[in-house]
Amino acid sequence: MSDRFFPNSMPDFVPENPKLSEDEKEKAKQIQINEPGTDDSLQRLLSLPHSTLSQQLQRAALELKETIVLETWGLTGQRVEDYTLYTGTLGTAFLLFRSLLVTRNKNDLSLCFQMIKACDSSSINSRDVTFICGRAGVCALGAVVAKYLGDDQLLYYYLAKFKEIRVSKDHPDELLYGRVGYLWACLFLNKHLGKDTIPSTSTSTIVSEIIKNGRNLGKKGGSPLMFEWHGERYWGAAHGLAGIINVLIHFDLTLDEREDIKETLRYMVRSRFPSGNYPVSEEDRRRDALVHWCHGVPGVALTLVKSAEVFGNKEFLEAAMDAAEVIWNRGLLKRVGICHGISGNAYVFLSLYRLTGIVEYLYRAKAFACFLLDRGHLHMIRGDMHGGDSPFSLFEGLGGMAYLFLDMVQPKNARFPAYEI
Ligand SMILES: [Zn+2]
């Protein structure tokens, strides 16, 4: 068995059985409760009609959410040590926001707001500007949640605070700590509060600077765009090309900027490993090991799906479908989270399902979610699956699993948190 992933022995496709009797559905539920982790329990879950399975996933998500709130908020005396969405309190707030949109439970809204308020105080002097690891996440989520609360004064407060954030020359270009991580927060605000909440006049200079930096490091005949973070030219979603392109393609671009982006994606596709996986960086082109959102094929695949949609381009869709095969075979990671775990990898299938409507992709997302539902806890208790360095967090821990389960309830509305808009 590989060190990094469980071999995927689940069938490539199991059609839903809409004629399953109530007795059979109940039996599947009981087996899952009493004898999880067997081939039988997983197989029964996979053949459940979506409506029945989604109820089970929602129930599991809401139970997990209670535990996560207790561990990251209740038991900490509501103190914020790490405010970020990635591993901290804002990640729990983001989970509550997702839960609100699925269940319409108003308690989620008020608790979410209390957490954002605490994150606001804790991040007031932070120089980090991104959605996932910085102040932009706090202010953008604060403004959107204020709108759901119907509190205009708070909405203006958080928007004003957002507009105080300054992206400086010292910030890198990448997603977790850099310019595109700030731009993603602008996209989030425009999606939820109206398309000119942050007008393009406020973002166009940042977009141009990123492209300019990319061209300076890019090469004719190779990749037209290339970026560096801490001395390494990364390819993945967290620090590299995939993450940067994924954000840039949402903005107005000139014809030659669009061409440079397309050519950069083509460079990546033709330079991928024979296995179909993608290297971590230009400097690390031999090690075909990581199948993570942060480093490797899953983050690239999500960018390819979005690029196929934005550019109406069949070659990017085909590359994304190739990527999905790698993730199906090597993506059942021995980790639970969104960033480098099974939960995050499931989103590639959801994204392809949304774009193509092909039910096999919905099945594959369901299979990854069922694997976690059926045996995630068992594997973690036994120690053969890592629960994350921050075990209740959104990006590394159980928060990601709960978020995925909630997204499985309305799979067409699923979005990889803080990456797909
Ligand atoms: Zn990661």
UniProtKB/TrEMBL annotation:
<keyword id="KW-0479">Metal-binding</keyword>
<comment type="similarity">
    <text>Belongs to the LanC-like protein family.</text>
</comment>
<feature type="region of interest" description="Disordered">
    <location>
        <begin position="1"/>
        <end position="28"/>
    </location>
</feature>
<feature type="binding site">
    <location>
        <position position="339"/>
    </location>
    <ligand>
        <name>Zn(2+)</name>
    </ligand>
</feature>
<dbReference type="InterPro" id="IPR012341">
    <property type="entry name" value="6hp_glycosidase-like_sf"/>
</dbReference>
<protein>
    <recommendedName>
        <fullName>LanC-like protein GCL2</fullName>
    </recommendedName>
</protein>
<feature type="binding site">
    <location>
        <position position="294"/>
    </location>
    <ligand>
        <name>Zn(2+)</name>
    </ligand>
</feature>
<feature type="binding site">
    <location>
        <position position="340"/>
    </location>
    <ligand>
        <name>Zn(2+)</name>
    </ligand>
</feature>
<feature type="compositionally biased region" description="Basic and acidic residues">
    <location>
        <begin position="19"/>
        <end position="28"/>
    </location>
</feature>
<dbReference type="GO" id="GO:0046872">
    <property type="term" value="F:metal ion binding"/>
</dbReference>
<dbReference type="InterPro" id="IPR020464">
    <property type="entry name" value="LanC-like_prot_euk"/>
</dbReference>
<keyword id="KW-0862">Zinc</keyword>
<dbReference type="Pfam" id="PF05147">
    <property type="entry name" value="LANC_like"/>
</dbReference>
<dbReference type="InterPro" id="IPR007822">
    <property type="entry name" value="LANC-like"/>
</dbReference>
